[in-house]
Design brief:
2 domains; 39% strand; mainly beta; Methylamine Dehydrogenase, Chain H; five-stranded mixed beta sheet; five-stranded antiparallel beta sheet
């Protein structure tokens, strides 16, 4: 049975778990060294809180001075209202490429090449079936840049999953039903399906998806709602559960990955993102806490309790899509928080989509309208279950 997606309001109130305290950090075997934490934080675990012009030209920091309180049942209710997962948008992004769902349910693959000064050229191609050359239709979600930087995952609105290379998709499904989320890392791609009322994780390590199998080592009652991965050669893939818990697994050479391990935050998180830190070329993970604020496994935390529904990591920048549609960028090293755009409903590493249909190129602390994309539609209307 399929249900119409009810996209959660962007004005959802911030949460805080009752009794949330206590520590965290990653599995000791893969945690970031204390020296790298000091290098990133420049002697402090918090960012500045001043907000720059760009979102109605005013600061609302006083709203985020302290956490509020929420129960475990509130967390469960929040996740149950998300329909097809956290960040429900058909916007895929890799290191130098991106993808998006069009208004007619097709998809575009965008190959972007830009130095620090800006975009040099963009190839915008229709995603097609490899055997017929016809457009792939009825797209639900897209993930790109997996399996050595050229893989693409397509999830249709019937819950089927197809794998491919760039804009060319193989016509045999690797999952037949129930899929609603995906993430693509350099050495592995993973998918979530709704199986026996739980979000089950499946992963594969070749472009064809021929070796796909259920991810082992997760708790028996783990109900996955989001996947996140970095775009580096030291792939880390993480899964967020409907209890706000996070488990990850790391590349260990060739197609071998570690057993999953829990990454513990100080309180449950509502959305996650993964990125490689350079140096020391070790992936780390950040989460938006239900308490408000952002916490990262490399020791950095935001100094305010602002919350949101989507998170991006890029170098030492942390980008938050706030509950009111504002895009806030934190710098882990020394810069204050900047609000660069408001009225945003979806984002990926390259694009911001506003609620009036405009698309912006996101690069560093700047954004500009991308005129060549006018038919983007990040939200499909139906869940596959």
């Amino acid at each position: 049975m399929r249900h119409t997606l009810l996209w959660p309001s962007l004005s959802l109130a911030a949460f805080c778990l009752v009794g949330c305290a206590g520590g965290g950090g990653e599995n000791p075997a893969s945690s970031v060294s204390s020296s790298s934490v000091a290098a990133v934080s420049s002697g402090s675990n918090s960012s500045g809180a001043a907000m720059a012009e760009g979102c109605n030209g005013s600061s609302d920091e006083s709203v985020f001075e302290s956490p509020t309180v929420v129960s475990e049942s509130d967390i469960t209710r929040y996740f149950s209202g998300l329909g097809c997962g956290v960040g429900f948008s058909a916007l895929g992004a890799g290191l130098y490429n991106s993808s998006y769902r069009t208004m007619n349910g097709e998809a575009r693959y965008v190959d972007m090449q830009y130095p620090d000064i800006g975009v040099t050229h963009v190839f915008n191609r229709v995603v097609t079936w490899r055997d017929t050359g016809l457009p792939v239709t009825n797209i639900l979600k897209i993930a790109v840049d997996g399996i050595r930087w050229s893989g693409t995952i397509i999830i249709t609105d019937s819950g089927q999953v197809y794998a491919g290379r760039e804009e060319s998709i193989f016509s045999n499904p690797i999952i037949n039903s129930g899929a609603f989320a995906a993430a693509a890392g350099f050495w592995q791609a993973c998918i979530i399906t709704k199986t026996n009322h739980l979000g089950q994780v499946w992963c594969y390590s070749d472009l064809y998806g021929s070796d796909i199998k259920a991810q082992t080592g997760l708790p028996a009652d783990f109900d996955a709602i989001q996947l996140a991965s970095d775009d580096s050669t030291r792939t880390r893939i993480c899964a967020l559960s409907t209890k706000g818990k996070v488990w990850c697994w790391d590349w260990q050479g060739d197609t071998d990955f570690s057993a999953p391990y829990e990454v513990k935050f100080k309180s449950p998180v509502k959305a996650i993102a993964v990125q490689q830190e350079s140096p020391p070329q070790i992936p780390f993970i950040c989460g938006i806490k239900f308490t408000g604020g952002i916490e990262c496994s490399n020791g950095w935390e935001s100094s305010d309790y602002r919350t949101g529904n989507q998170l991006l990591l890029n170098d030492h920048r942390v980008t938050l899509l706030g509950d009111n549609g504002e895009v806030h960028i934190y710098n882990m090293i020394d810069s204050p928080t900047q609000c660069i755009k408001d009225n945003i409903i979806a984002m990926n590493k390259h694009f911001l989509q506003s609620n009036d249909g405009k698309v912006y190129l996101l690069r560093g602390y700047e954004s500009k309208t991308v005129e060549l994309i006018s038919d983007i539609n990040p939200f499909a209307t139906d869940c596959p279950f």
